[in-house]
Fold:
Amino acid sequence: MLELRDISIRYKSHKTPILSNINLTLVPGTITSIVGLSGCGKTTLLSSINGVLKYDHKGEVTGSVLLNKRPIESDSVMEISKYIGTVYQDPDSQIVFSSVRAELSFALENYCYPLEEIESIVTGVAKSLDMMHLLDRNPNELSGGEKQLVVLAAIMVLEPDVLLLDEIMSQVDDKGSDLIKKRILSLKEKNKIILMIEHDLDHLDIADRVMVLRNGLLETFDGELL
Ligand SMILES: Nc1ncnc2c1ncn2[C@@H]1O[C@H](COP(=O)(O)OP(=O)(O)OP(=O)(O)O)[C@@H](O)[C@H]1O
Ligand SMILES: [Mg+2]
Structure:
């Protein structure tokens, strides 16, 4: 279970907080979606959960994030990445290597997994996401949607309990988004905690619960963004 308790965030460059007293409880095997107008703080909220905001020192974060009742806000970004995987809305910002296989192997190499194990985990994740055909491609030559898939696969190798997905369907057509939705639903079946940021209300059909960020507050979605 992932709990956000009274999270408030102010960027040091701003006088007023971007988000105030956010409370949210996410349980395994569910998909929660957050919608909101551009600039309302959706990505900021994700970065407060995975530790990036604290690491950047650009924002002041108060409140607590608990995973299975344990506060994680003093863990390092690298530690948190083992149990919380994030796919940001711009896949280029997360892709480093010139082969998909290298991209998927990176986190495991960092944790000094033996080579054979890396190979078998990478193949397993690629199979489960139906992307074996991409393994030997250069990510820079892939479409936006395929790049988002590569980033998702690269975080899945560490088997995180929590997935934070930031507008992960923003760069695909309807057929592409149907495929990604299927993959997200299969991750739900695997009992992952899934928090999905969306700007396209048509993609909310797979969500168990939809919340809206509005004026710095998180509320149950009532069908209106404003
Ligand atoms: N590093 C930063 N320093 C200062 N202000 C920032 C920083 N990052 C974001 N902001 C500001 O915080 C607000 C929220 O930004 P954020 O990117 O979280 O919104 P968003 O809801 O994800 O928007 P979008 O739908 O366009 O992705 C915006 O006004 C943005 O300009
Ligand atoms: Mg955003």
User: Anything to note?
Assistant: The chain has one domain: 2-220.
